[in-house]
Fold NADH oxidase.
Amino acid sequence: MLFQSFTFPNGTTAKNRFFKSAMEEQLAIDNQPTQTLVNLYRTWAMGGVGVLVTGNVMVSPNGKGSVGDVVVSDDRSLPMLKAWADAGKTANTLMIMQINHAGKQSPKAVNREPVAPSAVPLVGMDGFINPPRALQVVEIEQIIVEFITTAKIAEQAGFSGVQIHAAHGYLISQFLSPHHNQRNDDWGGSLANRMNFLLKIYQGIRATVRPDFLVGVKLNSADFQKGGFDENDSLAVVAKLSELGIDFIEISGGNYESPAMLAEKSSTRQREAFFLDYAEKARKISQVPLIITGGFRSETAMNDALKSGNLDLIGIARPLALIPDLPNQIQNGTYQTLTTNRIKTGLAPLDKKVGAVLEMDWYMAQMRLIGEGKSPNPKLSAWKVLFNTIVANGKAGLSTGRS
């Protein structure tokens, strides 16, 4: 099934079921796209993926989550955006721009006064992220306009669609969470009010772009945080988005304070993929195209997941940073199932403090190599990545971003 085409509700067709999920690249210069990004996405497109999703593209300079984020708030970079889109559409690939606003998940180095639905600080982030300021209603409305503007620019640049990032604890995810959103106006309180921000963004984009321009969402199955956005909330959002005609939903989970996928159940290890149980529940209430990302490594597990009927495309991220032509290798029979290990320095106290962040930076280093026309280096030293990152960007370079 992996090489069967798939047609989305708006009539757009992906050539196969491989969906390259977003990974933060941090390859922007002055928050603008670069030739390195263009090269990276051309390589992935030539590697056989059916759908490519970019890493975080922020809708506002005040919404950055990392030093190297691309920001698209106007058309100043339209020529390079067009080059990026064209590269990603090589070999009949669909190229999706992920659009996002970090909200309070914005380090001091890029934002001295982050914003959020409510002035609820992130636990354990005091030295890295300042406490947020609660957004005023007029600011909420302005950010909705910014999302719509970025989507329109993506369409003008030739992207196949956008993915609204409503997961991983960023601003839309913060609005969805009763823990992070303690407002008592039309934007908080009940789940209907908490999802209002996401729905206004989606409906605004859908009303602005062409019918054949894909509009999807990345959504948490849950925040995995006490008092946060839970599975029942998530399924209700899926049902509502489906009712409104969303083109696809990618399922993920967790946030800065409680990252998902650190503890695996035995059933998860056997089936490789995270969130399959959730997909089964979502399929019972909606026929919206679903993508599950996280854990897939073997061709067998990918095909088994598709055969279940509970998802429509296979989300793959980090394996493509090491094997950019993974789909082609599977198709021609040369793929050997990838085994990935945790990236560690070997110093337990240091690994405990920066391990997850270091791992993301290690994969970003692999993406940079690909973008520079080099081969990925599975033996790349964690210490070298740590040193280079801090030299280049200071402590802020230790990205905590998740696309």
Observations:
- DSSP finds 14 helices and 14 strands in the chain.
- The two ends are 27 Å apart (CA to CA).
- The CA atoms of residues 298 and 336 lie 8 Å apart.
